[in-house]
Amino acid sequence: MTTLTSFPEIERPTETLIDFRSDTVSHPTPAMRRAMAEAEVGDDVFGDDPSIHRLQARAAELLDKEAALFVPSGTMSNLIAVRLHCRPGDEMICEAGCHLFNYEQGGYAQINNVAVQPVQGDSGVMRAEQLADLIRPGNAHFVRTRLVTVENTHNRGGGRIQPYETVEAICRWARQHALGTHLDGARLLNAVVATGIAAPRWTQHFDTVSLCFSKGLGAPVGSVLAGPRDLLAEGLRHRKVLGGGMRQSGLLAAAALYALEHNVERLAEDHANARRLADGIGRIDQLQVCSETIDTNMVFFRVSEEWGGAAEFSAAIQRRGLLMNATGPATIRAVTHLDVTAGDVDRAIEILKGVAKSARSSAGRLSP
Ligand SMILES: Cc1ncc(COP(=O)(O)O)c(C=O)c1O
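Above: inputs. Below: predicted complex with pyridoxal-5'-phosphate.
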């Protein structure tokens, strides 16, 4: 079978798969599916889908913004946000490892004609002092610096929660210089649950905020972009031209509403499972957890050289029913989510242990 995907097809092992590739892989529960099946719907392009209205109102309230716009993906949400803040020939400042800069096909440039000034952070965290001299002079040689984006939690930073004071300082600096601020809060609620700092306290510093329902919250599709009403009225136009106008999308809104109702507090379980996984990995000689703290639901770890590389290791554990993606030559990422239990974590640790040892027992040769 040929599928249209940029990822290698999974060789299905005989054993049950435990899937740690991402928190996007969880399946809607029967209760969520029931909520979807029973959703009241209309045609959202005509603006008369009641479930979409409910979700947008609920998201705006949660994020303490005037309005929210439902969009198919986090990528589209970020893309629209950049377009709302910037004109062609403008520039945005972001952290060098952020999703918007690295994993959204350069939509900011490809579609919005916006340049980027990336700032090297520490595990995804940039400090306000690093930004001090970054605003371009106002003459015709330069792009116009317009926007600062922050990602919280930070994916490539290992699910890192941005320090609250840092966020405050960056956004204060941005405002002082009349720059727009956008929060890629795809996993903001992970930060909320882990810190106890309520969503509005995080979001008050930003003009626009993106939040995803299809990650730790367990919905099949969808994100929102929240912000000022007049800005989002323009955002609705951008969503249409990007092909994001959907019809009976109340079915999807119902899943997102269900997720907000039932799947937020439980993110704490994902965080505990990630710590459990990191502890287990920490006890395996050939593997090394990359960061000292596991803030939320991600664990990045390095595979020792005797194993050849992360891709080989990932393929070997896959043959034993465990899915984790290589994210670099020697690095693997594991993400906990709704479909992973503490028992699954323990089984995963046993598989990792067995595979890691198999390299050592064959004196450095690959023996998956
Ligand atoms: C931090 C962050 N922002 C945005 C996105 C994009 O979301 P989507 O996959 O829904 O386009 C992701 C996806 O993993 C992400 O991790």
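The first helix runs from residue 30 to 37.
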